[in-house]
Write a structure and sequence with these properties.
InterPro entries: DUF2602 (IPR019718). By secondary structure, this protein is mostly helical. Helices cover 65% and strands 0% of the residues.
Length: 116
């Protein structure tokens, strides 16, 4: 992707944020992100543009997911981001199946209960 194409996408992202998100009640604070991630059509457009800009995430493309043993950095990411993101988002970021991410969350919580 050329610099000019990236610049156009960044300008479009800024334009969307300025036009639609500046007065949004859910924009205030990181804790309100779930509304933007799950329900907002502008949030969907922002995600698609960002995915295009980053280049490693293609929202409408079928991607093979990781299987097998979880690496420690994946577990750490899951623990640190669980309060802020839903399972589908975490699964996308970890490149894992949402069912497996959900199962791992349950195992982590059960392990924490046993330790406590």
């Amino acid at each position: 992707m050329s610099r000019e194409e990236k610049r156009k996408i960044r300008l479009e992202l800024n334009d969307l944020l300025d036009r639609h998100c500046s007065g949004c009640e859910f924009k205030n604070g990181y804790e309100n992100h779930r509304q933007c991630l799950n329900d907002c059509p502008i949030g969907e457009q922002l995600r698609n543009l960002t995915a295009t800009l980053v280049g490693d995430i293609h929202p409408n493309e079928e991607v093979s997911v990781k299987k097998g043993k979880w690496e420690q950095d994946e577990v750490n990411y899951l623990i640190n981001h669980l309060p802020y993101f839903n399972v589908n988002h975490l699964a996308m970021r970890l490149n894992r199946d949402p069912k497996h991410v959900s199962g791992k969350i349950h195992r982590i919580k059960a392990k924490r209960k046993r330790v406590s």
